[in-house]
């Protein structure tokens, strides 16, 4: 029997992700907040939960205890992309599984902080983004360094400067200004499309694609 699946997602959603969710018959729920898992379990849900996006500034974020209670109740709980990746890293030894590039960055970089996945977005669908998460800029800078379009020192300076600012101020425009200031080059001359570096969205799509496959090798 196919496992019932609920996915909490918002700004990480893309049309391909929504299409996959519809095709597979999964349940799409808004970005998770404190109490949403409790409510889901109270309704009798005992399937697979994928946490991608969540809210934490306006209301209380999803708690560790409620995730652990869901696991204890028989749910498979996995995290990806954003709030899900954070909680998966924090609860990696407590039964929650992690997936994707964003999740792996918590292991790769000592200075990788929770606020790197944070962004401002509209509270209702389609959850239009107002700022970009730092993790997307980090991915872009890493590409530029590997391609030798900017130096490693320039990349470190750009990321360092962005880390000093509130996550709501981390916009594409600000990134373009930093690239120009530190390298003398324009971002549009260095990359084709910034969408390629939106790893939170690509992580979610890849996660959904691998669900129900016999070997979910991307999960840890």
Fold and architecture overview:
The protein is of the alpha/beta class. The protein folds into 2 domains: 5-118 and 200-210, Rossmann fold; 134-199. It is built from 10 helices and 5 strands. Strands 2-1-3-4-5 form a 5-stranded parallel beta sheet, with helices on both faces. α4 (83-90) packs across α5 (100-108). The longest helix has 13 residues, at 134-146. The protein is elongated and about 60 Å long. The model has no long low-confidence stretch (mean pLDDT 93).
Task: Please outline the helices and strands.
Layout: E1 5-8, H1 15-24, E2 27-29, H2 36-42, E3 48-51, H3 64-72, E4 76-80, H4 83-90, E5 97-99, H5 100-108, H6 134-146, H7 152-163, H8 172-183, H9 187-190, H10 199-210
Parallel strand pairs: 1-2, 1-3, 3-4, 4-5
Helix pairs in contact: 1-10, 4-5, 6-7, 7-8
Shape: elongated
Supply the number of helical segments.
Answer: 10
- Terminal Cα span: 24 Å
CATH topology of the largest domain: Rossmann fold
**Integer-rounded radius of gyration:** 18 Å
CATH class of the largest domain: Alpha Beta
Number of domains: 2
In terms of structural class, how would the helical and strand content be classed?
alpha/beta
Q: Going across the biggest sheet, name each strand in turn.
A: 2-1-3-4-5
β content, as a range? 5-15%
The total count of strands amounts to: 5
Low-pLDDT ranges: none
For the largest beta-sheet, the strand count, sense and barrel status come to: 5 strands, parallel
Helix content: 40-55%
- Please state the average pLDDT score: 93
CATH architecture of the largest domain: 3-Layer(aba) Sandwich
| SSE pattern, N- to C-terminal | EHEHEHEHEHHHHHH
């Amino acid at each position: 029997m196919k496992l019932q699946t609920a996915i909490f997602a918002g700004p990480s959603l893309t049309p391909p992700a929504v299409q996959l969710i519809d095709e597979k018959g999964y349940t799409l729920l808004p970005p998770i907040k404190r109490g949403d898992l409790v409510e889901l379990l109270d309704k009798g849900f005992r399937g697979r939960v994928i946490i991608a996006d969540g809210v934490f500034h306006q209301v209380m974020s999803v708690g560790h205890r409620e995730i652990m209670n869901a696991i204890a109740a028989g749910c498979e709980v996995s995290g990806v992309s954003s709030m899900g990746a954070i909680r998966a890293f924090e609860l990696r030894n407590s039964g929650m599984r992690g997936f994707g590039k964003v999740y792996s960055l918590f292991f790769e970089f000592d200075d990788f902080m929770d606020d790197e996945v944070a962004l401002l977005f509209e509270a209702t669908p389609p959850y239009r983004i107002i700022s970009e998460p730092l993790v997307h800029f980090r991915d872009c800078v890493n590409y530029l360094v590997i391609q030798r379009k900017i130096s490693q020192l320039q990349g470190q300076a750009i990321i360092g400067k962005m880390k000093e600012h509130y996550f709501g101020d981390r916009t594409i425009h600000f990134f373009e200004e930093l690239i120009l200031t530190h390298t003398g080059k324009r971002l549009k001359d260095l990359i084709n499309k910034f969408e390629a570096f939106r790893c939170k969205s690509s992580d979610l799509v890849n996660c959904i694609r691998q669900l129900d496959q016999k070997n979910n090798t991307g999960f840890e």
